[in-house]
């Protein structure tokens, strides 16, 4: 785990109480929060609070700093990661009690084995998980104390999705999952200018995606015009997002449906832009410390971009996002900082195993157990 040191402005996260969005439509979830109501963001006459201490994701090189940070950046974060952290993770409410689907079908693992056992004789036919309404597919970790969990499974061909009850309504920090879009938007800009991707851009894309390098992502973000890059998600992918702290890419507020839709869009659109095949290779080749362990369970070419940050003495955010042929899955977690990052990866794998079983993907337990 890297020492906090002096952070890249956009690499620090500061959670607040998310603003519930309006109901979702395919590839889109909501109108973004306004500047006056966005969590952690300054209102018309508010003074922004300084960001909380944090531990960033591993970085290959020292972070880049503006000589004079903008006033709304909130200044530099304290390097004292043991200090009291007033920030608390967003509440991700889950269904109370046993869901109707749970009562009717039992656990998803029971259903999976009933569907696939050679001599089951139960009469069950395989059923796609996306046929189930949000909040009706039970997952093993959803009611666990101290674990706030939101997830979504998207059918990328139709825009249909299922997930937790709040999958399209509760937002949290994107963390490094947004780096996939910063990379893709760089390719889009090259295509618009009818030029090849430069060597510097290619190097930063590879570093930001494969190694989750914050400094490389910061350079991509600044070249793209900062929030202009995330604002373009609406036109390019049909996903409207906003940041809770202007100038900070990790503060981009996303729901689980947003996260799944963004990575699915990147996977789908990248081949249309120069350097797209290299980006897809990057998304399939992230370094071991950034893998959730879910990739090995999935069929065909898989894109993966996760995000993980410990917010000082407060809490972890661990977000796991993958896209493959016809599907995208996002699992967003928050939990107390006293636990380690592996707790988040394990939660992602446990949720994925339940969801994939219900979606008819034959799991490989040995791959799941060793992290893939």
Describe this structure in words.
The chain has 372 residues and is of the alpha+beta class. The protein has one domain (52-61, 85-369): DD-peptidase/beta-lactamase superfamily (Beta-lactamase, 3-Layer(aba) Sandwich), CATH 3.40.710.10. The chain is built from eleven helices and nine strands. It has helices at 100-105, 108-116, 179-192, 199-210, 214-223, 227-231, 233-237, 256-269, 276-283, 341-358, 365-369; strands spanning 148-155, 161-163, 172-173, 242-243, 252-254, 303-304, 307-311, 315-324, 327-336. The strands form two sheets. Strands 1, 2, 6, 7, 8 and 9 form a six-stranded antiparallel beta sheet that branches. Strands 3-5-4 form a three-stranded antiparallel beta sheet. It comes from Pseudonocardia autotrophica. Residues 41-66 have a biased composition (Pro residues). Residues 1-103 are annotated as: Disordered.
